[in-house]
Amino acid sequence: MKQKKKLNRDLEFLYEIGCLRFLRRNWQRFLNPDFANLAEHPFRVAWLSLILAKMEGVKNTDKILKMALVHDVGESRAGDVDYLQRQYVKRHEKMGIEDIFRQTSLEEELPVLWEECENPTSLEAKIVKDADNLDVDLELKEQEERGFSIRQKLQDIRRHVAKEKLYTQSAKILWEEIQESDPHDWHFRARNRFNSGDWKKSEETS
């Protein structure tokens, strides 16, 4: 009977996680309704965390990936708040995390990692926090390419974040590179019809 109860809570957790794709991050009201949702955001944070871990020389990334996945899960219950709302509301995100994982197979490990990420003293937690911040700058660049001007209006704030809030030197370096990056380089520079396919200009015709 006990095992059956545990299994049911695991399934409930998986269904709840699936619903994160329906939850928007509230700061979309300042930006663009097509901003990443609460399922998409941690996906890129996880990849950013892996890259920063490599730059920082961290070999065991298992803990980092788990932190990246769990860092915003509490918002399923406590909601997301933007920089304006934070002056008016108090969320009970820790309670949300505890309730989300209660009686699941992950109950002993994931809330502890969430707590560590919320109070970053370890290198792993600092890397995930940095990745969380850098994802903002990546998305601001993407929005700028779509014609939205908010990135320029936030540039002083983002530069302050880069200088004062990023923990690792690797994150500071990556932040500077993001500012000069082009969100379209990944497909223009990839193997494609123009540089290696049927539309490539031959030397004779170029």
CATH class (first level) name = Mainly Alpha
What name does CATH use for the topology? Hypothetical protein af1432
The CATH architecture name reads Orthogonal Bundle
Number of strands: 0
Helix percent reads 55-70%
Give, in order, the helices and strands. Answer: HHHHHHHHHHH
**Broad structural category:** mainly alpha
Low-confidence stretches: none
Question: What is the global morphology?
Answer: globular
Terminal Cα span: 74 Å
Largest sheet: none
If you average the pLDDT, what whole number results? 92
Radius of gyration: 20 Å
Number of helices: 11
Residue share in β-strands: under 5%
Structure write-up:
This protein is mainly α and 206 residues long. The chain has one domain: Orthogonal Bundle (Hypothetical protein af1432). It is built from eleven helices and no strands. The chain has helices at 2-18, 40-55, 62-70, 75-78, 93-101, 110-118, 123-145, 150-153, 155-164, 169-179, 185-188. α2 packs antiparallel against α3, α2 (40-55) crosses α7 and α6 (110-118) crosses α7. The longest helix has 23 residues, at 123-145. The protein is globular and about 65 Å long.
Give the gist of this structure:
Helix content is 56%, strand content 0%.
